[in-house]
Amino acid sequence: MNYKNIGLAGAGIAIIGTFLPFLNFTNPVTGVTMASIQLISGDGMFVLFLMAISGVLIFLNKYLFSVIPTILSFAVVLYAWSNVNALGAPAISFGSGFFLSMLGLILALVSGLHSFIPVKDETE
C-alpha cells in the first residue's frame, strides 16, 4: 500500500473540507437551509495551516512527524464539533465540509501512523 499517496490525498481532502459548509442552519418551519458556516471562517485557518504542514511532511517521507499536525487538526475539528453539540439546536446539522475534513484527517493519520508498525524481515 502506498501510504504517501494516501496521506497526501487525506491532507488535500481535509484542506478542501475547510472551504465547504461545516454547519447548516435549517428553518424548522419551511425546512429550507438558510445559512451555512464554513470552517475556514474561524478555526479552519488552523486546520488549513496544520494540514498543509502535514502534507509537506508526508511528501518528504517524515511520516512520524506528520502525526503531530494531524492530531492537532483533529483537536480543532473535534472542538468545533463539541461547540455545535453544546448548542443542542435541532435545526443545526453538519455539512459536507465536516465529513470531508474528518475523512481527510483519518486518511492522513493512517498514513502517519503506519510508521509505528514494525516491518517484518522476510529474508530469513
What does this structure look like?
By secondary structure, the protein is α+β, with helices and mostly antiparallel strands. It has one domain. Helices cover 61% and strands 12% of the residues. The protein has helices at residues 3-19, 44-59, 63-87, 96-113; strands spanning 21-26, 33-38, 92-94. A 3-stranded antiparallel beta sheet has the order 2-1-3. Helix 1 (3-19) runs antiparallel to helix 4 and helix 3 packs antiparallel against helix 4. The longest helix has 25 residues, at 63-87. It is elongated. The model has no long low-confidence stretch (mean pLDDT 82).
Secondary structure topology:
Blueprint: H1 3-19, E1 21-26, E2 33-38, H2 44-59, H3 63-87, E3 92-94, H4 96-113
Antiparallel strand pairs: 1-2, 1-3
Strand order, sheet with most strands: 2-1-3
Annotation field: number of helices = 4
Please trace the helix and strand order, writing H or E for each element. Answer: HEEHHEH
How does the major sheet shape up?
3 strands, antiparallel
End-to-end separation: 23 Å
Low confidence ranges: none
List keywords for this structure.
alpha+beta; three-stranded antiparallel β-sheet; 4 helices; elongated
